[in-house]
Amino acid sequence: MQDVVEKVYEQVVARNRGEVEFHQAVHEVLESLGPVIAKHPHYADGALLERIVEPERQIMFRVPWVDDAGQVHVNRGFRIEFNSALGPYKGGLRFHPSVNAGIIKFLGFEQIFKNALTAQGIGGGKGGSDFDPHGRSDAEVMRFCQSFMTELARHIGPSTDVPAGDIGVGGREIGYMFGQYKRLRNSYDAGVLTGKGLAWGGSLVRTEATGYGTVLFAQSMLATKGESLEGKKVLVSGAGNVAIYAIEKAQQLGATPITFSDSSGYVVDEAGVDLELLKQVKEVERGRVADYVERRPGARLVTGGSVWDVPGDVALPCATQNELDGDAANTLLRGGCGVVSEGANMPSTPEAVEAFQKAGILFGPGKAANAGGVATSALEMEQNAGRTRWDFATAEAKLTDIMADIHDSCVAAAEEYGRPGDYVLGANAAGFTRVADVMIAHGIV
Ligand code: NDP
């Protein structure tokens, strides 16, 4: 790391003690900026780097709620409004017991550059709570969401901050939160949340967008080598929103996804995943991966090790951060994997990324490869603002174009800074320069 960025990184570690995921995300971006600063030293002027690693605003609040047995629970809510240079803060809400300030900050930081890559005029933010929706009734989830939104509503708005879903937050939770926001504000501000239901301001393709985009990114990377996904064996982790629609798009492009997982284990289905059954189990019944295996002859459930132990051509990590470590990366490489496209945020550890890059395989980092979700959220905002609704084909064509543009921006930036084929450098450099140029134009704010 260059001296100038090293100093900024040390300050981040000292100021944000114990927030290891945030340190990791900042390190990865700053490391990539060496060649950018060397070529354009003005990006280090005016404490720009120091400003970009400091959130504009951090909100932390109490979320009290009552369960079905009458017991009172207290969770913690977060919203990190990280950077508004390019537009209103935009980024999802995560409900998971592991959520803390460091995790939300890493996600918010990543979101700045991801959103810049989409070229859609959206700033970076993220939020969530350590609430665990697993095993909770709809009524409990509703009461939690109402309490969470009662505080969050003061801080968000269609031109201020526009949250969406993430782990543990899907259509049901967005619905409860939108209902409470509307009631508190007495205003039907459809553009305040994205990922809404189709009958009340949602966009076609938003549900599919992140998973579809991750696969489209893999397809674009393969195209640079004259290859495609056709006939390839695909390993997917996770069994949530991103994983399910990554599997769907991979199947549409002629590949065979053979795995998925949740926190109880992973499934190998050598015949190819039965997508309708997986949707029934996960989206309709909110079940576990074992429920799929019970109804699918030939599929097996594995509860030890990880999905990356299975040999395959393409890996799509779609569960959570740091789910793919250095050992798993080497196992994947030995199994013949030549493409990794990250559906999740920061799923590969630094050791894993290093192993992929050393091996020279195609590696698409999450901030580029999973940007289709937020890009389609911005398309939802656009439809809300115009009080219009596009059909599926129109929205999907826009998503496809945006993913192709993101891919090409990464390729161009990697070439410009002397590391052709390095999508990590390309994504960080292209995202950073777009935000940095606007921060300079806005002065010291
Ligand atoms: P969901 O909640 O729909 O699904 C998450 C899946 O990952 C579940 O199968 C869950 O299993 C599994 N998972 C989560 N945490 C862990 C863990 N600690 N260990 C093992 N398995 C785990 O979330 P999404 O599909 O929306 O999000 C997945 C990833 O994609 C996240 O990293 C998210 O930040 C990222 N992402 C999502 C976007 C979106 O549009 N939804 C946009 C861009 C990125 P279980 O149910 O057992 O916990």
Automatic annotation (TrEMBL):
GO CC annotations, alphabetized: cytosol
Binding residues annotated for NAD(+), in chain numbering: T210, N241
GO biological process: glutamate biosynthetic process
MF terms (GO), sorted A to Z: glutamate dehydrogenase (NADP+) activity; nucleotide binding
InterPro entries in UniProt: Aminoacid_DH-like_N_sf, Glu/Leu/Phe/Val/Trp_DH, Glu/Leu/Phe/Val/Trp_DH_C, Glu/Leu/Phe/Val/Trp_DH_dimer, Glu_DH, Glu_Leu_Phe_Val_DH, NAD(P)-bd_dom_sf, NAD_bind_Glu_DH
Gene3D superfamilies given in the database record: Glutamate Dehydrogenase, chain A, domain 3 (1.10.285.10), Leucine Dehydrogenase, chain A, domain 1 (3.40.50.10860), NAD(P)-binding Rossmann-like Domain (3.40.50.720)
Binding site for substrate: K90, Q111, K114, G165, S377
Active-site residue list: K126
Residue ranges occupied by any Glutamate/phenylalanine/leucine/valine/L-tryptophan dehydrogenase C-terminal domain in the UniProt entry: 203-443
Entry keyword set: NAD, Nucleotide-binding, Oxidoreductase
Matches recorded under CDD domains: NAD_bind_2_Glu_DH
Catalytic activity: L-glutamate + NADP(+) + H2O = 2-oxoglutarate + NH4(+) + NADPH + H(+)
Site positions for Important for catalysis: D166
PANTHER family membership: NADP-SPECIFIC GLUTAMATE DEHYDROGENASE 1-RELATED
Subunit description: Homohexamer.
Entry function: Catalyzes the reversible oxidative deamination of glutamate to alpha-ketoglutarate and ammonia.
Similarity section: Belongs to the Glu/Leu/Phe/Val dehydrogenases family.
Protein name, as recorded: Glutamate dehydrogenase
